[in-house]
Amino acid sequence: MGTGVPLGVALAEVRDGLDHAALTRALDQALAALERGAPLAGVLRAQAGDARADAKRHLIELAGRKEIAMLVPLVFLILPVTIAFALFPGYLVLQAGF
């Protein structure tokens, strides 16, 4: 823009030059708002809300995958040791003949 290029053209060049989905979506909406004469603040506010919701959804999906991964040591390490500690004293008592 500092070289005299109109705002819409400059934003379109930035959008085409970068390969980032969220930025492309935001610039598309900003360009559409500029072309239609819509209030830019409302469009940017809605875009920020969408970005927050997308980040929240991504974190929830990541937490779901990590939750399954955390169950592996529990099921294969901690649970068998706990069961062995619970059953071993009874086995010793049965072997002793009480």
How would you describe this structure to a colleague?
With 98 residues, the protein is mostly helical. The protein is built from 3 helices and no strands.
Shape: rod-shaped
Would you count the extended β strands for me?
Answer: 0
**For the residues shown, what is the average pLDDT?**
89
Secondary structure class reads mainly alpha
> What distance separates the N and C termini?
91 Å
Helix content: over 70%
Sequence of secondary-structure elements? HHH
Topology, element by element:
Layout: H1 7-17, H2 21-36, H3 40-96
Helix pairs in contact: 1-2, 2-3
What key phrases describe this protein's structure?
98 residues; mainly alpha; 3 helices; rod-shaped
Summarize this structure briefly:
It is found in: Cell membrane. The protein contains three helices and no strands. By secondary structure, it is an all-alpha fold.
